């Protein structure tokens, strides 16, 4: 699917036309599939397609997590799923969550994987090998590159919270803040960069927002990880532009809202409730 618009334009349109900051994460776990689908050929694609079709009008993005497909040798189903979203729901950008990070020559292959093979509109990238591990993705000028900054997991603090002040630098700077500063001031050559900041850490969302201005933030951690919706939305709001700037992900709480035959309806109800809570929090 060629000629997709700029990632930031797709987001701006989705935030305004769908009035939603919700991203449904596609993390298909066959153990949790309903009996009607479990064990059948193509089950992963069938499950995800039903979720996508039931929620596409409620979201600003879909985020398939590559490990849930690759673990089952289902990469072809991931390709077909992304193609299905582009064809049936062209207004919804697809963020491939693969969190790759490697030396430049290898990163180039990962960029080909995300954008040529899977035709994603954006990809998550681990920046902790430095700028040359991010740069190959920027050759795709219309694609989003979403860089891990302050992750939602408890262990994220082990490294991301280390102080990294240089000689003569008076304000305390932590590693995740350095990533935010570099990403916004030096790395964002295409204007299509974003950052991952966990909903489990609203204080840090606010700090990152202060550093990066309007840059889109991918915020996982509401739902199953327990992040607080009003605190998240307040912390990540762009000045004078409520309802923009955030792609707030929930996966398990929506995918497995019910594990029986009506799972797609239940997912829709859960997605709608979450979207409405996000809407209410922006006021
Ligand atoms: O990059 C991500 O999407 C991500 C970053 C992060 O810091 N924390 C995090 O949970 N994620 C992903 O977001 C999703 C969260 O899923 P739930 O906890 O089920 O909503 C998973 O696909 C994670 O891999």
TrEMBL record:
The family database entries (PROSITE patterns) matched by this protein are listed as: OMPDECASE
Q: Which residues form the Orotidine 5'-phosphate decarboxylase domain?
A: 21-267
Q: In this record, what's one Pfam family?
A: OMPdecase
Q: Which reaction does it catalyse?
A: orotidine 5'-phosphate + H(+) = UMP + CO2
Record has Lyase as a keyword: yes
Q: What is its EC number?
A: 4.1.1.23
The active site lies at 99
Task: Write out the coiled-coil annotation as residue ranges.
Answer: none
Gene Ontology terms, MF aspect: orotidine-5'-phosphate decarboxylase activity
| Gene Ontology biological process terms in this record | 'de novo' pyrimidine nucleobase biosynthetic process; 'de novo' UMP biosynthetic process
InterPro entries associated with the record: Aldolase_TIM, OMPdecase_AS, OMPdecase_type-2, OMPdeCOase_dom, RibuloseP-bd_barrel
To which pathway does this protein belong? Answer: Pyrimidine metabolism; UMP biosynthesis via de novo pathway; UMP from orotate: step 2/2
Keywords of the record, alphabetical order, are: Decarboxylase, Lyase, Pyrimidine biosynthesis
Q: Which PANTHER family match?
A: OROTIDINE 5'-PHOSPHATE DECARBOXYLASE
The record's annotation in NCBIfam families points to: pyrF_sub2
Family per similarity comment: Belongs to the OMP decarboxylase family. Type 2 subfamily.
What is the protein name for this chain?
Answer: Orotidine 5'-phosphate decarboxylase
Q: Coding gene? A: pyrF
């Amino acid at each position: 699917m060629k000629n997709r618009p700029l990632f930031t334009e797709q987001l701006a349109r989705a935030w305004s036309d769908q009035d939603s900051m919700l991203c449904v994460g596609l993390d298909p776990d066959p153990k949790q599939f309903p009996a009607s689908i479990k064990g059948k050929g193509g089950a992963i694609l069938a499950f995800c397609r039903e979720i996508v079709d039931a929620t596409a009008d409620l979201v600003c993005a879909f985020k398939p997590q590559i490990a849930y497909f690759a673990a089952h040798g289902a990469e072809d189903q991931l390709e077909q799923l992304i193609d299905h979203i582009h064809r049936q729901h062209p207004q919804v950008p697809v963020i491939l969550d693969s969190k790759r990070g490697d030396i430049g020559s290898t990163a180039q292959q990962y960029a080909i994987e995300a954008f040529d093979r899977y035709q994603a509109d954006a990809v998550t990238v681990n920046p902790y090998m430095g700028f040359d591990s991010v740069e190959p993705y920027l050759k795709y000028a219309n694609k989003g590159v979403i860089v891990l900054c302050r992750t939602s997991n408890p262990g994220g603090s082990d490294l991301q919270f280390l102080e990294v002040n240089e000689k003569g630098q008076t304000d305390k700077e932590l590693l995740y803040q350095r990533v935010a500063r570099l990403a916004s001031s030096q790395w964002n050559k295409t204007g299509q960069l974003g950052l991952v900041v966990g909903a489990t850490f609203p204080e840090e969302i606010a700090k990152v927002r202060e550093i990066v201005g309007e840059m889109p933030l991918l915020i996982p951690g509401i739902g199953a990880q327990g992040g607080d919706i009003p605190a998240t939305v307040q912390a990540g709001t762009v000045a004078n532009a409520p309802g923009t700037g955030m792609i707030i992900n929930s996966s398990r709480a929506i995918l497995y809202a019910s594990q029986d035959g009506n799972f797609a309806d239940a997912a829709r109800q859960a997605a709608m409730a979450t979207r409405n809570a996000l809407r209410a929090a922006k006021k």
